[in-house]
Design a protein that fits this description.
- It is a single chain.
- By secondary structure, this protein is an alpha+beta fold.
- Helix content is 32%, strand content 23%.
- The protein is built from 18 helices and 27 strands.
- An 8-stranded antiparallel sheet has the order 7-8-9-10-19-16-15-12, with no helix packed on it.
Length: 747
């Protein structure tokens, strides 16, 4: 970046001359201020991460300028040419505006101006997008959501070049493009704008930001508080989100107040939290920079900044977000939205741990927030961000269940336990479900969503039918399914009325971290309770997971408890017999997509299943009883377009009324494909025993190969101050609190 030092003086002289002759209005005012511009110019060439980000943007924008401007007639779904071209336009225009402010080169302002004038010349004559799949069609894109994306970015581009335009040019853009555009995604589509959902967050931010640039307070008020209309129905739209009811709050602040819990957990899940953080934060930043009286950063005890920290916690060792609810696997802390989140949050809160994430991302925003982060990194202010075990509440008041993550001290293991609310239209029917990770690798997986984002050949890049018929269904998750029917019968309105409940969460012990939750409504006649523990046993190379699931029912039911493992089966003790010909496991609620490959049973007290994944062995040891079946299944039935992955699963099937499922998951050993040597390939756990199971207490014994054992005691009383005494045979145990873990003892 030495070239900066050579031409910096010329750039500054040119920039100052341009600014002196420009309109004297208060611009820029959104994500960049004049103070930011001056500070950045003074340090060009001295802040490596910012300089590198600037150089990358210059290369990209210069290449686009050389290609010329294209605003094709809208035609395609996501992934198609016209869709991607218009997306590229707004992303490049936003960067070109930033380059103009920083470098003062008029070519960047001219590029943005010419692009916007080209859009202004066609916008009012554009019909609704020809693809009619969306509940709220845009004009440039097939859905208003993408039109809102366009306006959020283009408002920044317009703000950046505002002072370089003539009053005639501004009038053309505002009357022929921006005001009609804002009206279309709000007044013309109240079902999109007046709701609590990531869609309306983008819509309100778009309308508010262009209102700030134009000095149009009516648009800003519309964005902050929603449309002043009281005739919306109580029905859901066909995207599943509730339209604002009469008297219910709407707008940007209503979304901010409703979508986040006090812990910063976004009810739709981390994938959509990542997506929504961009409009939340850039509009909040814009309100702050524009000096607006209502400040989003200060609202709800600074929940927006908490949400950024929570998002980091919701990622694995690779930085990939846990794929809860509708989520594409692989979405990570490297996403553009998270670059924005980290930079804006650092500037607002000065948390040095965020700088380590910015270093991981290796780029920053070309604005004041990005410069602040890059400058702090250059000053060596960065500190590591250590992820920890955490329990996050769900719901605006933190009373709608939540999510727990149990991690070991090395952050190598992560147990993700879900007891949340429904999660709006992107929620899945998976109460008390869990997934498990080691070193960033999925071991027991959550499927995520059935969608190939922006791949046009797969349903136009949109959600596929299998998202509803498989990915959202309960059998697709590691949770209990009763009588082959999903939780809440897979009914969105019913599921949205209920949430699971945390019983207790305790991570104080170095050897036992425990979380327990219950759900009383997924199956109203069969309440469920699940307790999960991460236990460190001396002599074992890694902690084990103890899974205790209790279900109560007065009637006999068919219980299916799936474990969606990834990897290659190595060994079992239940001799699964192949099923031929292959047939689907059932007819509905996701069962129609599972092939039954083999069926097994065992007379032993435990069923054991070992598999190999990512050069590591894992063994599931589960307590069995007479009549239990062990079903080996594989995804892919009734999938004519091959939209589903061919993933395997092990399902424990039992017919009973009241029932208890106890399992232990143990990571162990390794396999080196180069040396072709296996180490510690056999489970260290010989047996799992239920010592007692009463209305008050439960005791689980883990017997190991070395002859030692450990016992986990669980009380139905979750009071941490309660004292307990339990007699089992000749042994009497006393403890306080909801659980007790007796570490390894000699028999």
């Amino acid at each position: 970046m030495k070239w900066f030092s050579v031409i910096q003086l010329l750039i500054l002289l040119l920039a100052n001359a341009l600014l002196a002759s420009a309109d004297t209005s208060n611009h820029p005012k959104l994500v960049m201020t004049q103070s930011d511009v001056e500070k950045i110019r003074q340090q060009l060439g001295n802040v490596p991460l910012f300089d590198a980000s600037l150089a990358a943007a210059m290369a990209e924008v210069d290449a686009e300028i050389a290609l010329g401007i294209s605003t094709p007639t809208p035609l395609d779904y996501s992934g198609g040419f016209t869709h991607e071209r218009h997306k590229k336009n707004y992303a490049v225009a936003q960067k070109a505006g930033a380059l103009y402010l920083i470098l003062g080169e008029k070519k960047y302002a001219n590029y943005v101006r010419d692009m916007l004038l080209q859009y202004a010349s066609i916008y009012n004559d554009l019909p609704l997008h020809p693809k009619s799949r969306s509940y709220a069609r845009g004009k440039i894109f097939w859905q208003c959501l993408n039109d809102a994306n366009w306006l959020v970015y283009m408002s920044q581009a317009y703000d950046a070049i505002y002072s370089s335009l003539s009053s005639t040019e501004r009038k053309i853009l505002e009357t022929k493009l921006f005001r009609p555009f804002a009206d279309h995604i709000s007044i013309a589509n109240p079902q999109f704008f007046n709701r609590i959902h990531n869609h309306s967050t983008w819509g309100t931010a778009a309308v508010g930001m262009i209102g700030l640039v134009m000095g149009d307070n009516e648009l800003v008020q519309r964005a902050l508080y929603g449309l002043n209309i009281d005739n919306f129905s109580d029905a859901t739209d066909d995207d599943g989100g509730f339209i604002r009811k009469q008297g219910q709050k709407a707008g940007f602040f209503a979304n901010l107040d409703s979508a986040f819990s006090p812990d910063g957990y976004y009810t739709e899940g981390p994938y959509y939290q990542r997506y929504a953080m961009y409009p939340f934060l850039v509009f909040a930043q814009s309100l702050s920079n524009a000096g607006y009286a209502e400040q989003a950063f200060e609202r709800n005890q600074g929940v927006l900044l908490k949400a950024v920290e929570t998002l980091i916690q919701l990622s694995d060792n690779n930085g990939d977000f846990f794929p809860l609810n509708d989520a594409q696997k692989g979405m990570s802390l490297l996403a553009n939205e998270i670059v924005t989140a980290i930079d804006v949050a650092y500037q607002a809160g000065q948390d040095p741990r965020l700088l380590s994430i910015a270093q991981l991302q290796q780029r920053v925003l070309l604005d004041g927030a990005g410069f602040a982060a890059a400058a702090a990194i250059a000053e060596k202010k960065s500190q590591p961000f250590k992820k920890s075990s955490v329990a996050l509440t769900d719901g605006a008041n933190g009373t709608d269940g939540g999510l727990a993550i149990l991690r070991d001290s090395n952050e190598s293991l992560a147990l993700v336990f879900k007891y949340t609310a429904q999660g709006l239209s992107h929620g899945h029917y998976d109460k008390l479900a869990f997934s498990f990770y080691e070193q960033g690798n999925e071991i027991l997986q959550d499927y995520g969503m059935a969608r190939f984002v922006n791949i046009g050949q797969k349903g136009g890049g949109n959600y596929l039918a299998e998202n509803s018929t498989w990915a959202k269904q309960s059998i697709a998750h590691n949770t209990l399914v009763i009588n082959e029917a999903s939780h809440f019968e897979g009914n969105y309105e019913n599921g949205s009325q209920h949430h699971s409940e945390l019983i207790f969460f305790d991570t104080e012990s170095a050897t036992a971290q425990v979380v327990s939750a219950q759900d009383l409504n997924a199956y109203p006649k069969s309440p469920m309770k699940r307790s999960m523990a991460l236990l460190q046993l001396p002599g074992l190379e890694a902690p084990v997971v103890l899974d205790i699931l209790e279900v109560r029912s007065s009637a006999e039911n068919q219980y299916d408890l799936p474990f969606h493992y990834l990897g290659q089966p190595i060994d079992t003790n239940f001799n699964p017999l192949p099923v031929s010909p292959l047939e689907s496991l059932g007819g509905d609620h996701g069962y129609q997509h599972l092939y039954l490959e083999a069926r097994g049973s065992t007379d032993a007290s435990n069923a054991k299943f070992t598999w190999l994944h990512k050069e590591r062995f894992f063994t599931l040891t589960t307590v069995t009883q007479s009549g239990d079946e062990l079903l080996m299944t594989r995804l892919g039935a009734n999938d004519p377009q091959f939209n589903l992955r061919r993933d395997p699963s092990l399902i424990i099937r039992r017919k009973a009324s009241d029932s208890l499922f106890v399992s232990v998951l143990e990571p162990h050993g390794s396999y080196n494909p180069v040396t072709e040597l296996a180490a510690n390939a056999v489970s260290n756990i010989v047996e799992v025993q239920v010592l007692t199971h009463t209305s008050k207490y439960l005791a689980i014994k883990l017997v190991m190969q070395n002859g030692q054992h450990a016992v986990f005691y669980l009380s139905q009383n979750s009071d941490f101050s309660a004292n307990h005494q339990l007699q089992i045979g000749k042994e009497k145990v006393e403890w306080s609190g909801p659980f007790h873990f007796r570490e390894v003892t000699h028999p």
